[in-house]
Amino acid sequence: MVWDSRPPERRSGGRAVRQRPGTRFAAMADDERFRALRRRYRRHALTIVGTFLGWYLLYVLLSAFARGFMAGKVVGDVNVALVLGILQFVSTFALAWWYTAYARRALDPLAAELRREAESADVAPLGVDPGDRRVAPRGGRHAKGREPAAGLARRPVPDGIPEQRARRTAPDQQRARDGGWTGPIRTDPGWLR
Amino acid sequence: MIAAAAGPMSGRALTFLMFLAFIGITLGITLWARANTRGATDFYAGGRVFSGPQNGIALAGDYMSAASFLGIAGLIALSGYDGFLYSVGFLVAWLLTLLLVELMRNAGRFTMADVLAYRMRQPPVRTAAAISTVTVSVFYLLAQMVGAGALVSLLLGIRPGETFLGMSAGTAQVMTIIVVGALMIFYVMFGGMKATTWVQIIKAVLLLGGAAVLSLLVLARFGFDPSTLLGSAAHSSGHGDAFLRPGLKYAQDVPGDPGQTIVNKLDLISLALALILGTAGLPHIVTRFFTVPDARAARTSVNWAIGLVGVFYLMTIALGFGATALVGHDAIVAQDPAGNTAAPQLARAIGQHFWGDLGGDLLLAFIAAVAFATILAVVSGLVLASSTSLAHDFFGHVLMLGRPRESQEVAVARFAALVIGTLAIVLAVIAKNLNVAFLVALAFAMAAAANLPAITLSLFWRRFNTRGVVAGIYGGLVSSLVLVFFSPVVSGKIDPVTGASQSLFPAGVDFHIFPMENPGLVSIPFGFLCAVLGTLLSDEEPDEERHDDLSVRALTGAGSV
Questions:
Q1: Are A188 and A164 in the same domain?
Q2: What is the arithmetic mean of pLDDT over A100-123?
């Protein structure tokens, strides 16, 4: 259902759906832990973009304007220009390694936790408090984030989603779980409507 | 010259046999993939079953085109350091891709437009994205196919006046374009992403293996002393020490013309910007983000690509300088003035040095076959990316308002591959004698100017809206095209010595207004400006709730497929 671009009144076989499409996880954006995740990602992304853009442009500018400096010999016939070029390779490898290590340490666990919560809150059947269905064990580091999560749990559970799920046939569900076609799955051809 | 010395027919037959072996294996893979491709996810994204390392190898394969392998090795062989300078940007660009890949993988399904259109009105955004995807891909495709025609004749050693299997050089060129085109259509139509990925993986392994063997041999020839290699190359190049310094090709100093000197320097910066900002917006790279199960695997694949592409470009230093040192400037230019056969010529020379004539023929045949595999794999990736966008974005979401049946969409994708492939064949045959090497840099500039602003602002700017995406894509695309059309690469560039035209149009036609050859310096900021102004000047309310939803999806992976 995720990618359904049709206006709400045309989804679910013409019945109006209370939840607007494309807003399933919007409430999570106010979660303090999500804001922390976004802040961390943006800070590191900007640092990396700034570093490699600046360093690469410096290298290009030196190649264009500082010819004398670049021609300086370092060892034998190896000059400054070549050494700086090789350093661009080294810095690219280093920045990629640094970002990946940081993401594994500080972004992935938080993202996985938020994802589990958001998805489990979403598929809760009517009448069940999604908060009770949380499977994500939370460490002490983000303990203060419990409050906003409760806010997420108070969201009205969209009734359109489980209903549409029920209309799917079993192989469709299997395919959807396998990462298959998750677009609008219908039993009637759309062009008849 | 390359296949002529010892036994012209034996070496050529060997190359030809290796071509056939590669074609046979890849056709087998395509038939296997055909039997295992059932739905849209299989066709567009290879069923999302590829592991991070596998997809990383395929990404590197998609990226290391014939232009990279033969082109950069040739550029270094003829222009020395400047060829290396050109290759650096291709690698550094991957850092931006690394930062965007997880977000794109999380928020999208098959194409860039899945992310762009998420919180916008679908039809205009999807249409713009499809137009941009097809334009960038077809330009890039054209450069590869025209190059392929000329190259295979060279690799098989067919020179004007000679015939091979009863074909003259000109006929062989046209035949090559048609055969390459037919094969790429076959791979994509029948095998979709699964076949294309495996073709890409095989090709990347062959290419990296071939380049590794050659560079080890070159280094061994010079006693593993890079300084000796460089000194020897500088000596054979005819330029002396200047060969190892910047300035032979890019940002040339023009004595007595400070204006032109500044333009040349800005041109280099313009090229550099397009290279580092364009990669993350290249459609055939973006489509590949979706072939892995999740965002972490996507990140792993980009890390693999960074490692492989980096090692590869480091090896091209040895190949390029080695070719100058061992083959010599004059012998390279005699074979191909653009230097594209420098790597195969080096293979022959180094093979001969270590194992005699037979070794030379074998190594040459192998490297020529690798170059051929490279061309085939890259053009297939490009056709797949554009047919995916046409079917999924334009047909699925614009014509069918987001409700096609899955089987319909895949059928349209296969048909689109046939149409785009045929169009590319026809255009490449028409353009076969034109100098279209600039199209690669143009494709990067368009990807940077049209796609990058739309991608980054969709993900990070809350106010961004439909008008902004559309204005940014068309603004970046059109400004790049217009600037290049009125630039010296299309008309008015004359070789100062011979008076021959170095532009697309023959000498005597000159309507160039824009002084630089690379539009990026102007068109990339212009693309961003259009995206921002388009947003601010429209009274459309931004959909903030959907923006929140998109950022949660992109950063956490919630709801991703």
A1: yes
A2: 90
| Nearest CB partner across the interface for B559, out of A2, A48, A108 | A2
Name the token pair of B318: 């040895």
The label of the residue with tokens 């437009």 reads B113
Span B70-105, pLDDT tens digits:
889 999 999 999 999 999 999 999 999 999 999 999
Pair (A138, A185) in one structural domain: no
Quote the number of domains for chain A. 2
- The Cα-based distances of A60 to A41, A124, B20, B153, B269 in angstroms read 28, 55, 43, 36, 7
CA A75 to chain centre: 47
Q: What is the C-alpha separation between B74 and B70, in angstroms, rounded?
A: 6
The minimum CA-CA distance between B157 and chain A, rounded to whole Å, is 34
Please give the residue of chain B at the shortest CA–CA distance from A39: B555
Using one digit for the tens of pLDDT, what is the confidence trace for B117-160? 999 999 999 999 999 999 999 999 998 988 888 777 777 776 66
Domain ranges of chain B: 8-556
Q: Does any CB of chain B come closer than 8 Å to the CB of residue A69?
A: no
Q: Considering CB atoms only, which of B95, B231, B268 is closest to A77?
A: B231
What CATH fold (topology level) applies to the domain B8-556?
A: Sodium/glucose cotransporter (1.20.1730)
Give the C-alpha separation, B78 to B238, whole Å: 10
Q: What is the dihedral of CA B167, B173, B178, B182, to 10 degrees?
A: 100
Q: At what angle do helices B295-326 and B192-221 cross, to 10 degrees?
A: 40
Non-local (6+) Cβ contacts of A38 within 8 A are: B551, B555
Place of tokens 């003035």: B337
Place of tokens 């679910």: A12
| pLDDT tens string B186-206 | 999 999 999 999 999 999 999
φ and ψ of B3, to 5 deg: -105, 5
Rounded Cα distance, A171 and A153, in Å? 31
A108 and A55 in a common domain: yes
User: Residue B55 in contact with residue B197, Cβ under 8 Å?
Assistant: yes
Domain that holds residue A136: 25-157
Flag whether residue B507 sits within 8 Å of chain A, measured between CB atoms.
no
Within this chain, do residues A11 and A50 fall inside the same structural domain, yes or no?
no
Q: Do B402 and A3 touch (CB under 8 A)?
A: yes
> What average pLDDT does range B340-363 have in this prediction?
91
Whole-angstrom distance, CA of residue B78 vs CA of residue B342: 9
User: CA B354 to CA B213: how far, in whole Å?
Assistant: 12
Same domain for A93 and A152, yes or no, is yes
First to last CA, chain A: 19
ipTM of this predicted complex?
Answer: 0.93
Does A4 contact B at CB distance below 8 Å?
yes
Same domain, A8 and A74: no
Question: B17-29, pLDDT tens digit by residue?
Answer: 888 999 999 999 9
Q: What is the H or E stretch that residue A78 is in?
A: strand A78-79
Q: Which residues of B touch A76 (CB under 8 A)?
A: 225, 227-228, 230-231
Q: What is the mean pLDDT of chain B?
A: 91
For residue A41, give the chain B residue with the closest CA: B555
> Quick one: A61 and A153 in the same domain?
yes
Question: Could you tell me if B308 and B208 are in contact, meaning their C-beta atoms sit under 8 angstroms apart?
Answer: yes
* A172: contact with B, CB 8 A cutoff: no
B322 vs B274: CA distance, rounded Å? 29
Are A86 and A132 within one domain?
Answer: yes
pLDDT given for residue A132 in this prediction: 36
Mutate to test the interface with A, among B82, B95, B103, B260 (most CBs of A within 10 A): B95
What pLDDT, on a 0 to 100 scale, did the predictor assign at position A123?
A: 54
Interface of B with A in 389-408 (CB under 8 A): 397, 400-406
Q: Which of A25, A119, A183 faces B549 most closely, judged by CB atoms?
A: A25
Q: State the first-to-last Cα distance of chain B, in angstroms, to the nearest integer.
A: 53
